[in-house]
Amino acid sequence: MSDNQTLVQLGEFAEKQDFEGAFKLIRDNQQEIAKNLKSSGVKDALKKTTKDRLLLSFVDFAFSESAATGAKPFDKALVALEKLLKFQVGSLVLSDAWGLGKVVRADYFYQRVTVDFKTKRGHQFSYAAAVDMLEVAPQDHILVKQAADPAAFETMLKERPGELIKEVLKSYGDMPVARLEDVCVGNGFVKSVNWKKFWDLARGELRKDKLMEIPVKRADPIRLKVSVEDYGDRWLTAFSHKTDPKQILADVREYVAQGKFNTADAAAKAQIEERIAFAATAARKVDDALYARLACQVKALGFANPPAAEMREYLWERKRFVKAAAELPAREVGAMIAFLAADAAAREKLYAAIPELCFTAVVEIVNAFGNESVTDAEGRTVAYPCRKAIGALLRESQAPATLVTLIVGKIEQFGVFKYSDVDVDGKKIRVLKSYELWPELPALTTILAHAIALGEGRRNGEVLKMQNIVRRLFADKVWLEKMFKLLSPSDQVFVFERFQASIAWDPSTHHTIVVRMTKIVPELESHLVKIEKKKEYARATSFRSYAMRKAEYLKLINVDMPENVRKIEFAKGFGDLSENAEYQYAKDEQRQLMQKQSVMQQELEMIAPSDFASAVADEVMPGVSVVIVTDEGEKTYHVLGEWDNDVEKGILSCKARLAENMLGKKAGDQFELPNLEGTTRFATIKAIEPLPEEIRQWMKLPPGMQI
């Protein structure tokens, strides 16, 4: 159609008052019309085709001008108008924030669209907000189906969870598990507490579905395929051009899982071998875990390229296998360990790396090689290399946390239980007669002492995970009873006293476990050490810090809060408060200021200014100086009140963790020394002294300040 014909036809639509026809003509001939008419001209032409006030308001908004940017671009104006035209009363719409809703009113005067959502009825959107935040809901969207037939939706949810997940993916697109959980929980399909059980059922169902692609890593998206792949020539051609190493590996695994590799011809296998070699090269020095997975795939498929020996050497270099093990999914760590353990020398290297390896890798090593023996020429067992290495590590002063956790958690795996049948009231009862650890390992008391030490202090990373496991074990009555049954009476006393002397466990948990031990073995009560309740001190701070905190409080109520009120009044002038960002920011700030004012007022009433003149230097308390001895030498701290702190002068708030660990201690006592690494260290209190004059001067009320 020529430009003139388009303009003539546009005039005819105006005469016939055919708005829909005119809009379709303009939308289908955007380029031609844009050459002859400005946005204002198109706006006028459309307005001539109708007298409907709602349609006129849509046109006015879509082609409106702003002081900052002028008229909207022609194409964007048409997009906005087309979207508004779909927001008819009764239309179903979607909002990221509110879910599915129904348009109940369109107000041409105030230019608003009102939507009823399930959790918010009568929610109003300006035309601008509606265009930005709402989408017309497709009829096949899961939320529309739920609203149309709630009973069928509930049946699918309970009986076919995998199908529900597929409907979610059809509606929202491919997504990782975390996002999938947010969508399902956020829309009320599944309660948060039930998600894990629901997902386990759905995943089991989806793994049988050839249209579903569930990735190994949780961070990768779950994909719903359009059709089932036949893995023929078309697939091989597309596969041979892929360059993403992760996708190459995923495709090969799927190809093998479908049973296609065993029946593939030599040419197809050669293509797969070439792409895996390409992927391995791409993964080198970029992703050690991916490289390890590719290496295992090379071994599994029997490929000669890349050479397995070369891939092993790369993983051994710079201990890349350690990092790979930490990043691999748990189910794939064993395959990497098996790939690396090519001979006895390689296995020795793995044993030596146990202190650096993650828990899963340690478990795989012990399970695979713990019972592997070396025999002499006559076939007699002469050594167990893995056991020997484990024993040596457990005899060190600080045993690997992963190894300690494994052994105390599955003690039956590392020894021999001997039982005997005892006649009790005519019934045969099987009781434990004796138990022996592998002879290469140290005594159980040594292992339990390592476990107690692991439970102490603050840890981080993999060691923190092990600490949490060990703490749960000690809190488990069944496990604790089993451990004490394996110990002789003297060893029971040793373990009990070692645990009781542990000063860095959570006090509440520590007390509960100590009491539980005495219930399991009542004779241990005679070894119970009564611990005095920690002394509480009056809440105080120096005159200096109190005055500074009060000055901060006065500034808050006399300057900051009045200034915030002015901001709120000023923001009201920007229009509708529900969509006024400046107003919302000012109100948020007001809530924060009011909360801060309430907290500060309460603290100023509860904490008193003090010169700590009553403090005595017979134990650590607020108002004394403490000389401590660490591995790095001596250091002096001045423990003062709650708000007192000056790093350069060694002034320490009594609420600081270091100070809390020292409070109530006397000269010669040990205490836990916090550190950034998260490992447990201890220091000794050498002396407790009165505060020096310099610190007493620091505590005084600064000139010009009042309380």
Structure explained in plain terms:
It contains 32 helices and 20 strands. With 707 residues, the protein is an alpha+beta fold. Helix 16 packs across helix 18. The mean pLDDT is 88. The longest helix is centred in the last third of the chain and has 29 residues, at 543-571.
Explain briefly what this protein structure is:
This protein has about 700 residues and is α+β, with helices and mostly antiparallel strands. It is about 50% helix and about 15% strand.
Features:
flat; five-stranded mixed β-sheet; five-stranded antiparallel β-sheet; alpha+beta; 707 residues; 32 helices
Q: How are the elements arranged and paired?
A:
Elements: H1 3-16, H2 19-28, H3 30-36, H4 39-47, H5 53-62, E1 65-66, E2 70-71, H6 74-86, E3 92-95, E4 99-107, E5 112-117, E6 123-126, H7 127-133, E7 134-136, H8 142-148, H9 150-159, H10 161-172, H11 177-186, H12 195-206, E8 212-213, E9 223-224, H13 233-239, H14 245-257, H15 266-283, H16 288-301, H17 308-316, H18 320-327, H19 330-340, H20 344-352, H21 359-369, E10 374-375, E11 381-383, H22 385-394, H23 401-409, E12 415-424, E13 427-437, H24 444-454, H25 461-474, H26 477-485, H27 489-500, H28 507-520, E14 540-542, H29 543-571, H30 581-606, E15 608-610, E16 624-630, E17 633-640, E18 651-653, H31 657-662, E19 670-673, E20 681-690, H32 693-699
Parallel strand pairs: 14-15, 17-18
Antiparallel strand pairs: 1-2, 3-4, 3-7, 4-5, 5-6, 8-9, 10-11, 12-13, 16-17, 16-20, 19-20
